[in-house]
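Support request, please re-run this one:
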Amino acid sequence: MSLLVPYLPPRLVQLGFDYVLAVEAGDDVQAAQLGSEVQQLPGLLPAIAKLIVFPVTGLSDDTDPCADSFALDEVGVLYVMAIRGWATHAPAAAAPGIAMTIAHFVGQILADAPTDVLQALQALRDEEVERARAVAASVVALHR
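Re-run finished. Output below.
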């Protein structure tokens, strides 16, 4: 998975997830504040989608691959490709829709119940920000 998901600095992980959370919560003021920065980074939301989608759909080293696992992997790749294309061709207009699509994926696949989407997104944000901080710390340590 680490080779498929590019490194994002903790600040950008936080920004991307906070934007998705604001859109999902219907917080138009917060979404607008974050949206201007998100829209200047058209690759940010596709990268956030990768962080969420690939661990769920990607081929696992833990189990023997089968036809279903290859199909699920390809569905994840297609999902992220569609989001990337959407973000590339219309970054300003696409951001809210991409955020809603990411939240919908979390709600359908990762949340325990439809009402738990915000909690699931917050938990994913905290986990991914911590992971990004650990990567950043190890990169700094390597360059000392």
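The CA atoms of residues 21 and 118 lie 7 Å apart. The helical segments are 10-25, 28-39, 44-57, 67-89, 91-110, 117-142.
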